[in-house]
Design a protein that fits this description.
200 residues; alpha+beta; three-stranded antiparallel beta sheet; 41% helix; globular
Length: 200
């Protein structure tokens, strides 16, 4: 004789199904390859288009690929393009570059140099330790410094549009306010800021 499921158990089961249908960091641990060889192809050094209907496992495949490459100490940058869909050229290109470099910066600062014995990192994000040795910390730091410089330059470029001025209004108390204009000019030696102030 079977016992009917209670409403509470049905609700819990429905919630588990909903969670399983969305790609999560925890869900990557239980990734099932949709077809033989798909994961290896996704990790190969080629360009790929991944398409399929909603819930077919596109995001899970990307997350699993990212995880395996990270465990192999291969540099990974994952960028969600959804926030940039309203951007126009050249802001779109610069914004994507900023996000990409920022993602590489995060990867280099954590997974590139973390020891395999540092279980606090590897057990938190992955179900096993990395397969290769960490990168040299000095070399990584040089690359991080360069990335930070490039990010500053790109950020300046993003707001450098046809001699446009960025104006910041700061209220002082209830009566007085200060208007500061920042003019950024790109030169061969870098970005040269000019600041002017006027009080009201």
């Amino acid at each position: 004789m079977t016992t009917p499921l209670s409403d509470e158990r049905i609700n819990k089961f429905s919630l588990l199904i909903e969670e399983a249908s969305r790609s999560t960091q925890e869900g990557v641990r239980y990734f099932i390859e949709p077809a033989a060889g798909v994961l290896d192809r996704a990790k190969s050094r080629r360009h790929h288009f991944i398409f399929g209907r909603r819930g077919s496992g596109k995001s899970s495949l990307i997350a699993k690929t990212e995880q395996d490459l990270t465990l192999d100490r291969s540099p990974v940058a994952r960028v969600d393009l959804e926030p940039f869909k309203g951007h126009s050229y050249p802001d779109l290109l610069i914004s994507v570059l900023i996000a990409t470099f920022g993602s590489f910066e995060k990867w280099l600062a954590t997974f590139a140099t973390a020891s395999a014995a540092k279980t606090s990192i590897w057990s938190r994000f992955f179900d096993r330790k990395p397969t290769n040795k960490p990168f040299d910390k000095k070399s990584v730091q040089k690359l991080l410094d360069r990335l930070k410089k490039e990010l500053i330059d790109l950020d300046a470029q993003l707001y450098l549009v046809d001699d446009a001025e960025v104006q910041i209004d700061v209220e002082k108390g209830e009566i007085q306010s200060q208007s500061t204009s920042i003019d950024l000019k790109l030169t061969r030696s870098g970005v040269a800021p000019g600041i002017g102030q006027s009080e009201k």
